[in-house]
Amino acid sequence: MSEPAILCCGEAVLDLVPAALDGGGAGFRPVPGGAALNCAVALARQGVRAGFVGALSTDPAGQRLAQHMQAEGVSLSHAIRSERPCPLALAQPVAGGTRFDLYDTGTAGAIYAVADLPDPLSAGAQALVFGGISLIAPPAAEAFETLARRAADRQLIWLDLNIRPGPVRDKAGYRARLMRMAALADVVKVSDEDLHWLGPGALDRLRADAPLLLHTRGAQGAVAMRGVEILALPAPQTQEVDTVGAGDIFNAGFLAHLTHARLLAKPLDLPEAALRAALAHGIRAASDSITRPGADAPGWKETPCAP
């Protein structure tokens, strides 16, 4: 397999999502999840060489996640294997979205450390994607911040804040880490929920730090902010079934468009038309995914052409 063009750095989690039981009643269905896994799989489906950087458990759940990524064509050459258990997340619908209760103490992902980082990093990787629960607490959070800092001079850094408040214990430390990483990033992606958690003034501060700030707004589409330039695009009307992983798939759609257009580079100097097309493709990919249960990304040829 060729070296991955984009490395997705962070967590692979077994999500337990609501499902009807065969005998009646409600239960949960195990599905692969985690921001890095979702983004890597979505990129692979979009025809981009993608790799996963992080820890995978050798227990049955972790093996299931590894097999899922390998079946989708995601490279695991930069993943480590651990005998510690696989992290689990219990997903339940609530007003305005999905609540995730994370069971991560002592898991393979939680104990990922600086010593586990790939060295050397793939020379063929053009971009690294960070975000999600892997940035919440040490040692994993310190490891991924260190990786971003090491790679920032050579590779494009994409940061999706993707904040999950439930597992956060050190709010000040977590906020400070996110802001340090935002200052390193070439692209920062935030959602309405992220901005609400960060509090007043967060959008202005992120906009001042990030060369390109992408603000996803669910059914309202997304906004790209670059200096004084603001570009807003709507989302198509769809029948929403499940929004889990939609942000990860937006990231993959945007990055896939840049990759196929041969515009993925550092620094990211996009003409306005190219920025519009990439933003539209990210929105379309995410909008397609929410019409099906789980983080089910469309293929490159399945994504409707962006206007």
TrEMBL record:
GO terms for biological process: fructose metabolic process. Keywords: ATP-binding, Kinase, Nucleotide-binding, Transferase. The keyword Kinase applies. GO terms for molecular function: ATP binding; fructokinase activity. Pfam families: PfkB. InterPro entries: Carboh/pur_kinase_PfkB_CS (IPR002173), PfkB_Carbo_kinase (IPR050306), PfkB_dom (IPR011611), Ribo/fructo_kinase (IPR002139), Ribokinase-like (IPR029056). The keyword Transferase applies. SUPFAM superfamilies: Ribokinase-like (SSF53613). Residues 6-298 form the Carbohydrate kinase PfkB domain. It comes from the Bacteria. Belongs to the carbohydrate kinase PfkB family. This is Carbohydrate kinase.
